[in-house]
Amino acid sequence: MDNFHVYDTTLRDGAQQEGLNLTVADKLAIARHLDGLGVGFIEGGWPGANPKDTEFFRRAQQELQLQHAQLAAFGATRRAGVKAADDPLVAALRDSGAGVVTLVAKSHDRHVELALRTTLEENLAMVRDTVSHLRAEGQRVFLDAEHFFDGYRDNRAYALEVLSTAFEAGAEIAALCDTNGGMLPGWIQDVVNDVIESTGVRVGIHCHNDTGCAVANTLAAVDAGATHVQGTINGYGERTGNADLIAVVANLELKLGRDVLPAGLLREATRTAHAIAEVTNVPPASRQPYVGSSAFAHKAGLHASAIKVDPMLYQHMDPIEVGNDMRLLVSDMAGKASIELKGRELGYDLAEHPQTVARVTAKVKEMEARGYTFEAADASFELMLLEEVEGTRPSFFTVESWRVISESRAVGEETEATVKVHAGGQRYVVTGEGNGPVNALDSALRRAIARAFPAVAEFELTDYKVRLYDDGHGTDAKTRVLIETTDGDTSWVTVGVGENVIQASFEALVDGLTFGLWRHQK
Ligand SMILES: CC(=O)SCCNC(=O)CCNC(=O)[C@H](O)C(C)(C)COP(=O)(O)OP(=O)(O)OC[C@H]1O[C@@H](n2cnc3c(N)ncnc32)[C@H](O)[C@@H]1OP(=O)(O)O
Ligand SMILES: CC(=O)C(=O)O
């Protein structure tokens, strides 16, 4: 879509995020996901600035078969006082193999004088020469006008002259950068209006989120006539990040009726955001607009009662449009409608069972008052629901007793747990060791029931969270434990509450194994 550019800079500006470190293989994997979302441009990095980015462009030419996107190589205008053709960083851009070069240029006079330590005239020559040289080499050139909005305030004429110079030399786009991220939507809109009116250049927008307005600022620029939007997946980026590109395109498509991605690909948004989070190893933010796991999660009973009639009463859009799902959360804020809808989500039609629904609702509230939490522990909720719906709780084994001994020695510590369990008509007494009481109990319990239920060999404890639950009586503080278990394909979370951490953990462990076996049997 050449009349409107969706330009992703996850691999360049996104990678400037603190704590984010990508290998070449990671970058290639992310590029494939971005192409699957249908973005028009993937800024792959700064070839020549470090071996990894140079290698990315080399391998990208051989290994990436992009369907929708073109690669863009990012880099700076030539150094002051050298010819563009002689600048090794410009040569690396020219030789990167990318279809587009995006040149960052100074457009704020203060930066030219203080950071570049050169004259305003020389900076214009750096822009002109570098763009002309790359154009003569057959490259498409976009310009990132760094600190444009601050520069415009201090010296409007010079900021505009930088853009005109780049255009006269053959640049296609002037992406106006709010590099320090200090702008607000109204200001952006006024400046973009003026730039388009005064220069006639094709304007793009690149916003940082330091005022929390990166997406709003990007949309304001589009409203004023910008036809090229830059951003990153999950809003990754330096400091507080860049404009979240998915929120930008979803707003453009769903709220403003602009077709900016190839038809149907917005539905890949949630999958793409999460798949890229897997690669970056940055946990996805659950409250992220459109794609977060909480973006369409409903907790309040009043919301659920209206959603039962029509989900759109409490949603601004159908989550399917961005590939997300509605979820119902069960907690002490649930009403009967929440339980009925949660039941439906789990595959139980409770519409004709109002008494069951009322019992479960009351039980949830009573248990949450004692420290349980079900919104994160769907598996414990489902076991409780099954007990109310079917009259019995799934049970595969019974625990006669358990005991844990931790021994602190001169060298290290040893923990041993013994469980006495009845499973498959047999009584087992098994001792397990571990690097802590929960690990030892988990090991003993799974070994005890493995003969009767071999499926438990596949189960693994993948997450463990402890929280002191103080109900106002300091000495009576209880412990809540959440345990995530997986069978390799799916995972489920169970909750336990007790006077101490081991007791609470044991309850959550038993629920975890029970739920896994029940699902395996199903
Ligand atoms: C707003 C942004 O986020 S732009 C993207 C910024 N990204 C990065 O900086 C990551 C990659 N950068 C790097 O690897 C390095 O900084 C390099 C390889 C580019 C340069 O490294 P060095 O040669 O050691 O220079 P150093 O980083 O200390 O300083 C940057 C130099 O670029 C110059 N420079 C800055 N912006 C520009 C520009 N738009 N055009 C030309 N030169 C520029 C500076 O004046 C400085 O020059 P100097 O070395 O003569 O003082
Ligand atoms: C170019 C860029 O990343 C910026 O100005 O923020």
Automatic annotation (TrEMBL):
SMART domains for the chain: LeuA_dimer
BP GO terms, sorted: isoleucine biosynthetic process; L-leucine biosynthetic process
UniProt-listed Enzyme Commission number(s): 2.3.3.21
UniProt-listed InterPro entries: 2-isopropylmalate_synth_dimer, AIPM/Hcit_synth_CS, Aldolase_TIM, Citramal_synthase, LeuA/HCS_post-cat, LeuA_allosteric_dom_sf, PYR_CT
Alphabetized GO MF terms: (R)-citramalate synthase activity; 2-isopropylmalate synthase activity
UniProt entry tagged with the keyword Transmembrane helix: no
Domain Pyruvate carboxyltransferase positions: 4-271
A Pfam cross-reference name: LeuA_dimer
Functional pathway: Amino-acid biosynthesis; L-isoleucine biosynthesis; 2-oxobutanoate from pyruvate: step 1/3
Transferase recorded as keyword: yes
Reaction(s) catalysed by this chain's protein: pyruvate + acetyl-CoA + H2O = (3R)-citramalate + CoA + H(+)
Keywords recorded for this protein, A-Z: Amino-acid biosynthesis, Branched-chain amino acid biosynthesis, Isoleucine biosynthesis, Transferase
Family per record: Belongs to the alpha-IPM synthase/homocitrate synthase family.
PANTHER family named in the record: (R)-CITRAMALATE SYNTHASE, ALPHA-IPM SYNTHASE/HOMOCITRATE SYNTHASE
Protein name: Citramalate synthase
Source species of the chain: Nocardioides baekrokdamisoli
High-level lineage: Bacteria, Bacillati, Actinomycetota, Actinomycetes, Propionibacteriales
Encoding gene per record: cimA
